[in-house]
Amino acid sequence: MVLMEIKKYPDPILEKKCEDVVDVNIEINQLIGNMIEAMQKNHGVGLAAPQIGVLKKIIVLDSEKGPIAFINPKIIKKSKEIETIEEGCLSFPGIFLNIKRPKEVEAETVTEDGKKIIIRLNGLLSRVFQHEVDHLEGILFIKRIPFWRKWKIKNKIKKEH
Ligand SMILES: [Zn+2]
Question: Of 81 and 152, which is predicted with more confidence?
Answer without folding.
Answer: 81
